[in-house]
Amino acid sequence: MQLPLSESDFMQIVQANELFIGLDRDGTLVPYTLTPDMAYVDKTVLDIVQLLTNTKNTTVAIVSARGLNQLKKDFPFNNIVLAGSCGLEISYPDHKIITNETALRIKPLLPELIEALQSLIKSKYQAIIENHGLTVCLHTKLISDRSILQNIEKKVIALGKIFPQLQINKLETTYEFYPNINWSKGMAIETIFKYLALDFNQGLSIFVGDSQADESAYEVINSYNGITFKVAHNQNVSKAKILLNSEKILIAMLDQIARMRCNLFGKIS
Ligand SMILES: [Mg+2]
What we know:
This protein is α/β, with parallel strands linked by helices.
């Protein structure tokens, strides 16, 4: 499969003395599906991620909107960084978990929010409520009727007034209820670099994402002269340096990087 990056960029990744690989989950490692619970991580992808995490001088971080518990089930590996809820809760290779304090304070409100969302959609709308632990998502992908969608939006906005501790991020077919704090995937990346004392003015960092939420991560990685990739489901303007046509090309690229780096640097014993 032809990779969309130059031979020199590819070899720079393979040969970097220290490599950080940040990866988004949904729409990046895992194709989107009709409902979120159908989007599981394929065995091939798991094997590649595991090989990368077991390779010396290589740090892998999954930075996803999914909750930490879900990521732990998906990627049950040592030597991996799992940044759930976009990094509000980060699990490190030393097994330490650091949770954002404001998000923790707001967490007890979430059952009340979920109850309000349940009564909002009742059983008549095919909306899906997902509790990610520190955030809550309302998915409307299964609903096509515009008047129902407008009605839900009106009610979601009203709910936002009842829960000022939460901000509502409107994504394509999802409303994400997120603690009302200044936080982004880019800040999660900076936090991980700091915790692991990674100096990416020296090594090389890359990040792969697909949506608006990943733009802040591209910005941070680009500022360290890293290489950023976007799986381009849409034509939106992006700060990512390289566009990938599909998840398949990303998987093929990661597979080659994992094998070549493992040959070059060896496995962690
Ligand atoms: Mg994504």
